[in-house]
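Team,

Forwarding the record for the chain on the shared tracking sheet. I've put the sequence and predicted structure together so nobody has to dig through attachments.
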Amino acid sequence: MGASLTRDLSAPPPIPEAGIEAAVAVLRSGWLHRYGETLGDASEVSLLEAEFAASLGTRYTVAVNSCGSAMYLSLLCAGVARGDRVLMNAFTLAPVPGAVAHAGAEHVLVDITPDLVIDLADLERKAIASGARHLLLSHMRGHIVDMDRLMALCDRLGITVIEDCAHTMGASWAGRPTGTFGRVGCFSLQSYKHINGGEGGLIATDDDDIAARAILYSGSYMLYGLHRARPAESVFARWRDVTPNFSLRMSNLVAAVARPQLPLLAERARIWNDRHGRLAAALAAMPGVRLPHRPQEEAFVQSSIQFAVTGVADAAFATFLSRCRARGVFLKWFGAAEATGYTSVSGQWRYLADPHTPPATAAALERLCDMRIPLTLTEAECATAAAIIGEELAAARKA
């Protein structure tokens, strides 16, 4: 066995000193809860909402306790009712179908292409056949579909788009940020995302009614006036007495940790994309390895890399993954028969009315490998990781 990688590929982005100091200040004050009759609109959460909305170019942001909650509330606020059908990528992570299930809706699984984005032809077929009027679109693992074509299709069919941008904070299509194409954009502050708040979600929208309902649903009580960026009182008057309080708020502690990371996002994107480019160049040169095509219009922020392997039998592929892991390169496999860790696919979600993995998606995931790229990964470690993958893949082909 050759060299091993000692870097922990699962390491989340570090918390900057300013975030640590802000968190300590919140702890010392005792004001961890975002609302209080004497707090005014300058709580850490209220400031995070206003700052994120300004950075994205939307009128409103509503902060909640997770991206899963953000998607759930966005579905409700966009008009999804119990029993409605919701279109979604067949390739995504479990909180996405979880949000649809939480809303009491029925999942309509749409195939993906070999480039890991939603298949627009299958989306049109499934939308017409199902009558679904909402699409929960995941930019899964940072891969962005042609958003101009998607929005034109959805506008023509009368479909409301909700974007899951858990993997695309700071990314854009043709110069327009993800999260601003649909009626709502949902972002994540979970530790492995682009801003590390431990956990947390952000709902971005220009829609007055969606923003007001999200604030009320999230648990503002009658203190919605403490939101710095908020709709007019007349909008809240339409919803305040008919909207349940689901207590899905973000705490001031999470916001205090997250706020100082917003200005760091561009530099983090530069580092991630540099490391992704180095890994991609090395992997693309290996026989039997395919990387997804990235269109010119796509400005991604890649904190992970995906590649498909061909020409390796089942047993040899399992050995390849095991031997890479033994040398410090932990590769997730989305085509595995059973759910493992954070990784699962639609055929394993038994709570769906029709759990299955559509055929094109199954083919794309059959030998799909996924590797996290920590911010601390050095240029030399990129070369080491690629060499380990290449060596173990060559050994698997000989097996």
